Amino acid sequence: SLGIKQLGKDAVGDAAASGDLRKNAVVSCEVIGINDGGVEVKLVNHEDITSFIRRNDLARDRDDQRPERFSVGQVFDARVTNFSKKDRKVMLSIKALEIAEEKEAVAQFGSSDSGASLGDILGAALKNRNND
Hints:
The protein is of the alpha+beta class. It has a five-stranded antiparallel β-sheet with strand order 3-2-1-4-5. It is elongated. The model has no long low-confidence stretch (mean pLDDT 81). It holds the Pfam family S1.
């Protein structure tokens, strides 16, 4: 016999099958509720899926980890840190997205002098100047 859940649309199963929801994927979220512990969101592309972003996952900087800085209806991107089809839970983090973007920027724009001290850089510049 079929229950009502088997007849209804399976939003989590559909999202998993499409490959949209997987660990480290970036998704758009809309705020639907705010409390002291974090922010309740729904996924923009998957209307039936909701998640809770804990306070410490709201931002990398501790000063920005205030749920009050968000407003209901606000849309932002977050990174999927865990997706369990069995438990039907999606864990999201803005902090993980910020860290990943920073690592990507360092890898893309990091110079050969990025680990050098000011003295090393100036010493090399003076040596080049003296050679000219």
